[in-house]
Amino acid sequence: MAALLPGPWNPAVAAKQIASIDQYSKGRAAVNVVSGWFKLEFSSIGQWWLDHGERYRRSREFIECLKGIWTQEQFNFNGDFYQFHDYPLKPKPLSSSDRPHPEIFQGGNSADARENAAAVSDYYFMNGNTLEGFQEQIRDVRKRAEAYGRAGQVKFAVNGFIIARETEAEAIQVLQEIQGKADKEAVDAFADQVKNAGASTQNKSGMWANSKFEDLVQYNDGFRTKLIGTPAQIAERIMLIKSLGVDILLVAFLHYDDEIQKFGEQVITLVRKLEAEGRGKDETYEISLTGDVYRASK
To answer: 116 CB contacts (<8 Å, ≥6 apart)?
Structure first.
């Protein structure tokens, strides 16, 4: 998956490169379109720093251009940010009935982000959240997608951080050590910058708008996905997340090389067993088992 930032990236160049990668990888390429929160990333290369809503409007055009270039023989587009006239691209990425082009992921929590996901994206990426937060995001994006005639076409992905240990107490201790040893200056600097993505939105509900210092140590609120405990606890929580409508978990680890194999052996094995038993489909049932772990604090 390639993360692409409209502004620094031109959709024509991006479409060409991703098409080539998709050919090389036999249809495994995907794109995550990020609208940007770090002002210096734009201004240091002479790019205009647009308001939050305008950044997402440009991203929407960017996604429309990618999809058009990949699927049309001669692409035409007359937008505010991008213009194309009979633009050809060959070779195009691989295409099939269930995958007409490389899948496009896009995140954000604001109304602008959700509208983009509903209108043009294949996957809506979410940061870690509470149970109520996940439910509200998924419900809202699905409703917006229906208005665009895309019911059932938008899938959901969520970020998470895995700490699997023999006991829950051990896992929580590791979490506390990670947070306690964090570089406070670096985390505070990150928190200051991401205000451009969170509190700067009209309804103050963008990404990181409600994140605390402890959350921002893992920059996509991965700790809030609560995949921290014993392998059995983590497997149960994955069942809950799946039942909410989440299709993909993007996970990180403290020691990736050491922990990824154990995660597969100890957690994914349990997940597959639970799925074989029919788990992960009944939201009400999964919430009755695990929901309290995720509920917002009163």
So the answer is: 56, 59, 60, 63, 106, 108
